[in-house]
Specification:
The protein is of the alpha+beta class. The chain contains 6 helices and 6 strands.
Length: 117
């Protein structure tokens, strides 16, 4: 698969910058560890989850999501895979408290209740 094929599929590697501060006040900026990220439709096909489910999990804070523009969302396949593995290995993951928080965070009710308290 060529680099152009990856771009058309919404897949790519992201290399974040890492800064190191020295005692003398100088700063070194160097490339960090490469991370694969994919657009929402690709992540949806890869893991068999709907785009809405991925968005809700990101809104609830269970997954990271990068939004370079309002209409584009990037997800990190390694994080999705780790989350699915966690929920598979721990059947009690979605306990009643997490279910309530997930539902409330999704609708914004969670923040409203926190402000009232």
């Amino acid at each position: 698969m060529s680099e152009n094929d990856n771009k058309e599929l919404g897949m790519g590697w992201y290399i974040p910058a890492v800064t190191v501060q020295f005692a003398d006040g100088s700063t070194l900026v160097k490339p960090g560890k490469a991370v694969q990220r994919v657009q929402m439709p690709v992540a949806s096909r890869m893991f068999g989850l709907s785009g809405r489910t991925l968005s809700r999990l990101a809104e609830a804070g269970y997954l990271r999501c990068a939004r370079p523009s309002p209409s584009v969302k990037f997800f990190y396949p390694a994080e999705i895979e780790a989350f699915l593995k966690l929920t598979e290995e721990n059947p009690g993951f979605w306990d009643s408290q997490r279910r309530v928080e997930y539902g409330l965070r999704r609708t914004g009710e969670y923040e409203r209740r926190k402000r009232r308290a």
